[in-house]
Amino acid sequence: MTVAVVWAREPIPTSGPSVFLAGPTPRLGGAVESWRPAAVEALAEQWTGPETLTVLTPESRGGKRAAHYDDQVGWETAARQAASAVLFWIPRDLAVLPGFTTNVEFGLDIGTGRAVLGCPPGCANPERNRYLIYVARRHGAPVCETLPDTVAAALATVRAAQPVGGPPPTCRRWPSTTPRSSTGSPPTPHGRPERRAGRPAPGRHRLNEAPTRNRPTPL
Length: 219
Fold this sequence. Notes:
This protein has helices at 36-46, 69-82, 100-109, 130-138, 147-161; strands at residues 3-6, 18-22, 53-56, 85-89, 115-118, 143-144. By secondary structure, the protein is an alpha/beta fold. It has a domain at 3-24 and 34-62 and 72-161: Rossmann fold (3-Layer(aba) Sandwich). Strands 1-3-2-4-5-6 form a six-stranded parallel beta sheet, with helices on both faces. Helix 1 crosses helix 5 (147-161). The termini are far apart. The relative contact order is 0.14.
């Protein structure tokens, strides 16, 4: 089915299924290629939903980086919050793909129930992913070892977040008439009938009025 890539700092769709591609980004002009094109290809192959799947990538269109750091970070934060699923793919390599910012983002997103973690055991520094794997399992998040499996887990999260067919739920409407008790008075919040003004409850008397049985008998 159809996927649409939204690049960094481009308008973020406010509806429809979406996946954010979180993970380390290689430096421009470096020897390591980005893993995200392969992720987009895998998403396009596996997505079978009726709607277009939006793929949110923190990489810039044409390789043009943001002029201001805050603009980039602000967009990434908003995009991760808007995504139906956040796919973390971390081929850790401290020399070229350290992923230090990714660690922080993972810690922020793991509690949302939308995070999926992929950590290839054959990366340069798999030992630096052990704590993330531990945290993901503690939260019940999917943990995968290949990119296709991570994509499949992310799409399962997207499908689970989509509304089931049928009319939208409506708010519960309370009865228009107030239920009455056996005495004919509306119940109080505690379930007891409300006393009408001027009629004291049994065993109670108006202020400064003594009970009848305690009044002196006139001579």
